[in-house]
Design goal:
The chain is an alpha/beta fold. Helix content is 33%, strand content 18%. It has 2 domains: 273 residues, TIM Barrel; 85 residues, no CATH class. It binds zinc ion. Zinc ion binds next to loops.
């Protein structure tokens, strides 16, 4: 009642009451409380009422014991999983997404979950050896597994072209899959091949080539060690001009200047897996050392890598090496490409801000409930606290659109992302000035504050910093 409604379309606020029944929004306008018998009334005077946020790039396993409350506390009611080329599966040896979907469909989830099929997982499902291209029958198999996933309600396919096995995928394979996605009007969401400053144009070019066939989406857009607003604008111009030529192109970004991934990101293509690494230690050790040295220097030095897992969690690469009394290259060799994950302070604030404040670029966390990076807990709050309230580089209407209406329409989530009659009732009630991102790099598990009520499928899921027992989320299937 009495809230200022921001409907998620980017339009400005208007005063209205919202009626929700059976999980749907049934009325927006002025309600006479004497004529309506409500089971529950939420007073929203002085607050805004917005759609629940849709995070198109998230990680984690909602079928495990780990709670996703950090997402609800941050205003997110729907997450898209199956990212960077990997989709979830029931067992490690089993690559089909379908049994997982069946299990998720029968489970009570804390929030809504939508899925991409993962390109790397499809590759493993088709039993394609990592370092080879698929033969004809293997490619047919991948295509048919992708079709199966899309028929069962996946929203598209993700790639992880910087990771094993996506790193081995070449054009014919990606084109064949893009064609299938095109048939379904589904999205190819790409962790691109290389996000470095001197390679980003080529990586975007590879993605844009696939835009002939299907909708394309650049995940967590960044320019590693690139600098300045002008550089950011160059990248945006590339995407904009592709969009103007009729291609359906989109991107998301997270509001931090550190990335987070496996330590393998520092290793060369020929030493990414444990087997490759062990072979390289025997046959190309000097070359590997030189590579690691140059790579770390290029990525702002050993002080700019902060371990998030493994023996050295909480320490920078420089600190860990000092503790062991060895060089950082020796330390990396002792850990290996699979031995840890970490945060990498390799982005430029000004450059990334051109993406974060672009009106048509969506915000996504790339976070998980357990990740040792604050983006798993604070992404959406950070956007409102820093960019809307403090710096005023985004209007609240624009920020909400970038976190609800825009991701919904891009990914084909047709009944969410907007506050309109007939839409599903995923709703937030909050005071923008009270939103606080609490998570930090040294304390990344702090819940965001200020999202007073978070409603999922018409039920109160998060109420004044408390998780309710609603478990109202569900597996979303693309219609
Ligand atoms: Zn990624």
């Amino acid at each position: 009642m009495h809230g200022s409604v921001l409907d998620g379309s980017g339009s400005e606020t208007f005063k209205a009451d919202l009626l929700v029944r059976d999980g749907k929004i049934v009325f927006i306008g002025e309600v006479d409380p004497n004529r309506i018998k409500a089971e529950k009334v939420i007073e929203a005077e002085g607050k805004v009422v917005t759609p629940g946020f849709i995070d198109v790039h998230a990680h984690g396993n909602p079928l495990s014991e780990v709670s996703f409350r950090s997402f609800l506390a941050d205003g997110t009611t729907t997450i898209l999983l199956g990212q960077d080329g990997y989709h979830p599966s029931i067992a490690a040896s089993q690559f089909s997404i379908l049994p997982w979907m069946e299990a998720a469909g029968e489970s009570s989830l804390e929030l809504n979950v939508a899925l991409f099929a993962g390109h790397g997982s499809l590759r493993r499902q088709a039993q394609i050896p990592d370092e080879s291209a698929p033969n004809e029958s293997q490619l047919d198999m991948m295509v048919s597994h992708l079709r199966g996933a899309l028929e069962n309600g996946c929203y598209g396919m993700s790639t992880g072209l910087e990771y094993v096995p996506g790193i081995y995928a070449q054009k014919p394979e990606l084109e064949a899959l893009a064609e299938v996605l095109g048939e379904y009007d589904a999205v190819m969401s790409s962790h691109m091949r290389n996000e470095d400053d001197d390679a980003i144009e080529a990586s975007i070019g590879e993605l844009l080539d696939l835009g002939k066939f299907c909708r394309i989406h650049a995940s967590h857009l960044k320019v590693v060690y690139g600098k300045g607003t002008a550089r950011g604008k160059e990248i945006l111009a590339l995407l904009d001009s592709a969009g103007q030529s009729g291609m359906k192109v989109s991107a998301d970004v997270y509001p931090y200047i550190a990335s987070y991934t496996g330590i393998g990101i520092l290793f060369p293509k020929w030493a990414k897996t444990q087997t490759q690494f062990e072979k390289a230690l025997k046959t190309r050790k000097k070359e590997l050392e030189t590579y690691l040295h140059n790579r770390v220097i290029k990525r702002n030095g050993p002080e700019a890598t902060l371990f998030g897992s493994g023996k050295y969690a909480g320490k920078t690469l420089a600190e860990a090496a000092q503790q062991e009394g060895i060089s950082y290259v020796e330390l990396l060799l002792s850990i290996g490409p699979q031995g840890a994950s970490g945060a990498y302070f390799i982005m430029d604030r000004e450059l990334q801000d051109t993406f974060i404040t672009h009106p048509e670029l969506m915000i996504a966390s790339d976070g998980s409930p357990t990740m040792l990076h604050p983006r798993g807990h604070g992404t959406m709050a950070r956007i409102i606290e820093r960019y809307v309230v403090k710096e005023k580089s985004l209007t609240l209407a624009s920020a909400v659109y970038k976190m609800s209406g825009l991701p919904a329409s891009t990914m084909g989530i047709k009944d969410r992302g907007l506050l309109q009659k007939g839409m599903v009732a995923d709703i937030l009630v909050f005071r923008p000035e009270s939103i606080k991102e609490k998570a930090t790099f040294s304390d990344p598990y702090q819940l965001s504050e200020g999202f007073d009520q978070v409603i999922v499928n018409g039920r109160l899921a998060w109420d004044n910093q408390e998780l309710t027992d609603a478990k109202a989320g569900r597996l979303l299937r693309r219609k």
